[in-house]
Each structure stands twice: as C-alpha cells, then as structure tokens.
User: Fold these one by one.
Assistant:
Number 1:
Amino acid sequence: MLNLPTSFKEKFEKLLGKDEAAKMFAAINQNTKKAYRVNPLKAIQQVSYDQDEAVPDLDNAYYGEVNGQDPEWVSGTVYSQDPAAMFPAKIAKVKPGEKVLDLCAAPGGKSTALGQALKGEGVLVANEISGTRVKALRENIERWGISNALITNNDSETLAKNFPDFFDKIVVDAPCSGEGMFRKNPDAINYWSPEYILTCQSRQKEILQQAVKMLKPGGKLIYSTCTFSPEEDEEIVAWLVEQEGFKVLPIPEITSTKISHGHPEWTNSNLVELKETLRFWPQDNVGEGQFAAILQKSGEPAMVNEKKVKKNMKNKKKQHNKLALTVDERKLVGEVLDQFDLPIALKQWSKQALVRQDHVFIPALTDESKLRGLKIVNNGLELGLLKKKRLEPSHQLAEVLGQVSQTRVVDLAQREDYLSYLHGETVKVDTNLKGFVLVSYQDLIFSFGKVTGQKILKNFYPKGLRILKKN
C-alpha cells in the first residue's frame, strides 16, 4: 500500500469528491497498465504478443508487456509505452512534410510516433536537455527507423534563438510533479509537495514561452503532462489562452468514454474551452495519469519570401558541395548499399549524402543557420563510417533497411545464438553469403554483421546496446 501524502489526498477529495477520490486512491495502489505500439514502418509487423485488447482510439496499440531482449523490441518492431502517454502524439495529427518539434523528447515514445507519422517527409527535431536521457532518445529513434530526425541536446531558450516561427507543430510533454507516475514509480511520492507543484508550474511556463517563439503563426501546440494537478494542467492552458493569445482546439477523434475532459471550474479563469482538454485517470483503466491539450497560435502563416527561399537554397547548395562525397567515397558507400533493397529514404542517397569527419549521413536539416551553436547528437540518417577505403555501415542503417524486404540476411536459427550476438559474440552460421549482411532473429532485422570465409558472423551490434548477460 502506497503512503500517499495527506495533503495530496485532501486536495483530490475536494476536487473530485470523496467517492471518486477513493476510486482514484485505490487505482493508484493497483498494478500499472502496460502497453506497446507496433511499428508500421517495418516490413514485418507480426509479433508474438497478445493483441486481444487494443488501446482505445489508437492504431497499432495494444495492452501487454514487452521484454527488452525480445526480437520485437531489439528490431524496433514494437515500442513499450504507457498507454495514456501515447495520446499526445496521436492528437498532434502530424502530416508528411511538416516541421515538428518534440521539445522534451526523452526517452522517445512521442518522437517515434511523430517521426513515424511524417513518413520520411519534412523534419522532426527531437530535443532533450538531459545529456544522459538524450542517449536513450537517440537509441529509440534509430531503432524505430526514423530517418529524418535532428536530435539535439539543448535548453529551450537556445533552440528558440535558432528556430523563430519555424515549426508547424510543437509537442511539449512538460516536466511535472509526476502524480500520474505514483504507482509506476513510488519514488515520485517522496519529492511531491504543494510547493513542488508551483515550482513545476513556473518551469512549464518558462519552457512554453520559448516554444511559443518557435511556433509558426497558426501553428499548433500540443501540451501534455503526467500529473493531475490543475495548476500544471488547466491553469497552464488558461495562461496560454489569456497571456499568449492561443485558442484551445477540440479533439473529436478521441471518443472513448474511458477518457475524461478538463475542468474549467478548477481554474480562476473558468474558461469553457478547457472542457476540450483530455484527462486520463488511473481509475478509468486506460493507463497512468495524463493530461493533454491542443492549442493554436494566433495569426496567419507568413507568406513565402521567394527571394529568401532562393538565397537559402543557394547557401544550402554551397554547404552541400563542401561536404559532398567525392567520387571515390561515393563508390565505397555504393559497394555496401547496392547489395540491399533500399527504402524511399535511401533512393537518392548518392545526391543527398554528406561526409563529416568520415561519418557519412543524409541530413534531416541542412540549413547551417538552424544548426549553428546547437549540441547536435544526430542529424538525419547515419549511413556509416569510412575506414581504410571501406564503409562500415551504421546500426541506424540496418534498422532503416528493415523497412523493406531484404534477401541479404542471416536469420539466427537458435535463441542461444541470438542472445550471444546481443552479448557481442561471434556466431557460427550456415550461409553462402559473405561480407556485410543484415542479421535477424525470427525474421526481424536488428543489426549488421559480417560473414567471413569460415562462415563466422562477426559482430557489429553496437557496444552500447549489448546485453550484460544472457538470460
């Protein structure tokens, strides 16, 4: 039984009434709701998990538990995520070609869904201020096969200087008091206090003030938290309406009766539009706690300045020429890529690929004015590293190649071989293939390998992803 703070219980008894609050407290002491999404970008989407119970109002999302050593996870075929946390990316309704920012992106659940919706067109900027958490963000975006993401490690103020009025949509899953995580992470109870809620509210406003600067006139802001407190939810939305001129938009695609709506009466403003926001309570049995809203920035999108566009294109071309592959480098890259069936993201690689410090990549963003001064973790699709007149293909490339059917694949027959490979070991294989190959288990591609003349599969699974022990 979790020891919920007395002030927390008193607060929600007052807001919800004693009967509904009792249901909430009882639900917080029950097991967490776990779920996963299936990746529609991958060529093979069959999974071994039960799909009898779908998450309401979401595509390709089901209740169930994922093991981090399962081939479904390792190959990026599934993403384990709290079901309620899946909704902010859903309601963003991202379209191919849009410019999208996930401002507080780690560990990557929302970024993978946003990038997936772009279908390789447009750009996703996935930002995380934590240097530790941004590593997990990169791993998850790569595993999911997103090829057009710029991953950055900056504070919101730094980003705002580079991207004024730039994005069509911005998702801010703001740092919060974490009340919705009490049953998932009981440690969150220890640092909860009424004062902490106000600290979080202040931080949320600071982040949103920078997000407002980066959103185009007429652009959409998706705001979410994993907390129940009106101070961080309805009051923040009311502040955006009253101070920043935003308009709250309805979310008609969410129809489940298990999902609640916002409470205007919990704010001083009493804005009727707050009823359009979404609330996820643990007693409604969808997932953990979540709040979500869509708001639209005032104003009309600016007219395109043709002269400025031509100037930018000219500058991009100069930068591209400076980093473009030489004839010899293009040949080395082609010797690897020409052996595989290429998805759309790679069809024009010879024209798009750049090289910097021997890293060959197809950038998601080429405008140097947007990149200057940023801590960039990854820009687009890393193809590989040039070494001694050869290209060593990247792990990200393997995950992207998994989007289409491949023939140059070694499928590991035994689970023991699969776990050995994840552990970083070489494996004896029965194949006539030689050189670089894609490696799969249960037909799910998850890595590159290299077959020697002795039919030994040399290990190219990244050291940072390897398992410490074989279960």
Number 2:
Amino acid sequence: MVYIGICDDDRYFMDYIGRELERILKKKNIDAKIYKFESGMDLLEAYDNEDKPFDIIFLDIGMPRLDGLEVAEIIRKKDEETLLIFLTSMEEEVYKAFKYNTFRFIRKTHINKELKEALESSIEKITDEKCIFKTLNGDLSIYTSDILYFEFIDRNVYIKTFDTKYKTTIRRFKDIEDKFTSKGFILIYRGCMVNINYIKSIGNLDITLDNGEKLPVSRYRMEEVKKSFIKVARRG
C-alpha cells in the first residue's frame, strides 16, 4: 500500500490531481490511499499522529499562512524519507526548494504532461531496495537502482555508480551473482555484472552504458545480453 498526501489550497485543483493519481494507479494495479489537505497546518497535523504518515507528498508552494516551503522545512525535521513533489505556478520559487531534498517539481501549467512521470518515478523510488555493503571506510548504504555495475578486481568487488566507484570488502563475486541476478543485473563476462536498465547500446562484443562508458562482453554472454536489452527496451 502506498500512502499519498496532496496539499493545495485550491480545492478544485487538488481534486483534479487526486482523480488523475487514482486513474494512473488503477491502470498500474497499485494499491494506494490518497489524503487531501487544504492547508499546510492540516498536513502537519498528520505528523502529530504518526512519524511518517506518507510515502509521497504533492505540495503546493504558494499557499496562505504557511507556504509549501515552510511546510517542507517542518516536515524535513520530522521525516527525511518521504518524497516531496512540489506543485507550483511560480517557477522562480523552484530553486528555493532544493535544500528540502525535493524529488520532483510539477508546473501547474504542465500538469497533464508532468504528473504521470512524477508519480511513476516516485513509485519506482519508494519500492526500490536499499542495500548495505561493507567497505574499508565503513558501511555503504545504496539503492539498487543507483548501481551501474559490479566488477571483480584483484579479489575485491567494486561497485560503480554514476558518480563514484566503491571498493567493498566482498571477496567472492559469486555472492553478488547469487543476490543480484534476480534484481535486474546481468553477467557480461566473468567478474562483471551490469544493471540492465543502464545499457544504452550494444556493439559487436561490447556495450555502452548511459554514462558513456564502454564495457567488453564475453562472446558466450552476448546472446543473453541482447535478449535482456531488447526486453527492457520493449518494456520502456
């Protein structure tokens, strides 16, 4: 069950968003409960009863008394995990909201185009699995979807993300294979597993990832890599 809060002082607009969210969720067979609040004070009262009442909050920036940015600041002191999606007709206010770990912004003038993407991305995020790996610098907590690939180098497993390469204390690559084969990763050669979702293109005996990096593919693994790539492409 996904718990969603909508906070907007425009009742008509809030009801419209609620109906659209219900339509999208029903189409994807996702069970959810949607709660509506006409003021920031009403939304904050929900936090008086529970530590984390919502997985996702759609929050209007321009509201009387407490605006969306003020509400977000109070929420973040109580809850670091809820995904905040700001609704705004004042695009110049967007930059002020970055410090609240904002997940998405939706322009009210583009609601029909941007609402669906924001909801689908947020659902993917909250259902994403967080894994903990031991490194020489302590425990690394990372979402599976943030991992580009695993690589076995000099008897250590490395984790590559878009920004960093981490050296873990894992000594057996089979431990990675056993755990992540069912989580959207595919072996491209002995000692390297790639997140299928980040394969951008396939060459003769290599692949190119979304970050532009090229990796070799074993001749014996190529057919399976191609099948997985086509399957993901069709799904997307």
Number 3:
Amino acid sequence: MDWRQLSAGLFGADHAIEQDGHLLRGSATFDGRTLAVVGTTDHAPIGVHLALAQARVVLDTVAQHPGRAILLLIDTQGQQLRRRDELLGINRAMAHLGMTIDLARRAGHRVLGLVYDQALSGGFITSGLIADACDALPEAEIRVMRIPAMARVTKLPESMLTALSQSNPVFAPGVDNYVAMGGVRALWRGDVRVALRDALAEAPVADRRAADGKVRGGRRLAADVVQQVLDAP
C-alpha cells in the first residue's frame, strides 16, 4: 500500500506527513491527540544518512514533545549495501537509530511500528522490532533472509531449509510466520483507523515477543531461555 493511501485511511486530511526522498516525517491528529510519524517508503535501503535522519526525528520528538506517541511507518529493503556506508559506519548509525527508539520508550513515549509494505533485514530490526509493538498489514512482506541466502550462510542444503520452513516459522519468510514468532503482534484487517486505535490502546509496555511466540507456537523455547537467564544467580 502506498503511504499516502495509508495516511488518508488513518487520518483523512488531518496530517502533516511529508516525503523527503525515502524519508517520511511529520505529525498527524488521531482521536484528538497528536502523533509523531517517522518512517521510510519506496522499499528504502537504510544507509547512514537515512538512519540518522530518522533518529533525528525521534530525538526531536523526545526533546520537544514529551510523551507524544510515535508511529513508525516501515517499508525497507534492509541496510544499504554500499562501500561508502560501510566506511562511514552504517552499523553504528543503525544502532544509534535503535537506541533513540529505546530512549523514547524509556522516556514514556508509546512507540508503535507498522509494516505497511516491505520489511527486510537490519532496516526492520532497528525500527519496528524495537518498538513497544509492531503490527503489519496483511499484504506486507517480511523476511530477514531468503532461503537461498540462508543456505549460503548456514552451509545447509536449500531443500533442507525449505522443508524446515514448512513446519518452523523461524526458517520461513512471510508476515504470518512473524506473527507466529511474536515479532509482529497483529495484522490490521478491515478498518485501519479501528486497528490503530486498538494498537495504541493495547501496546504493551513490557517486551512480550518471546511470550507471544511461545503461546503461538512459533518460538517454543525463547521465553523459557529468557526466564532462565533472568533467574540465574
């Protein structure tokens, strides 16, 4: 879905969201309160410049609008695969973006991620997966790595990984699999305004992804391992 179509469905004409290259930023009024909006579009590759630009919006919101909820609109093909960005420290820039989102949460801002088109790799990890909760549209595409690339990294046959993906969401791309794993809390079906209202009201303060993954059967051991670590002397 195009971000303009999504914004019109969510806010009507009552928003000031602007596109600057691949960057989305601005604000919107919803149910009488103002939301900060930041994100990306056009399957954006997240390089140093774009990561820092998003981080700047988050930090300005924390500094200038204490407590204002933040909506992350996610459409990315992952990190920018370019030598320039590697030399400039893309890992640190993306980590900085993730830390600003964590700072906003700790400062009392509700942060909600929405995958409205595509979410791949590190561009998703340092945005939606750090929010209080991350939701998605049913037609969204989410994955960290395609099976052929996974086979090259793990040195396992593609046929084995394909077979595993049929029964284990960890090995499979697709929005439904991320719901099963707890990475995506819910899919927005039907009226997106109703879905946003529910998402803002129900966004958890504590990280529930491992627990949701256990209940949904997509990550059966993560919650238990987390608890063992917390209980360790």
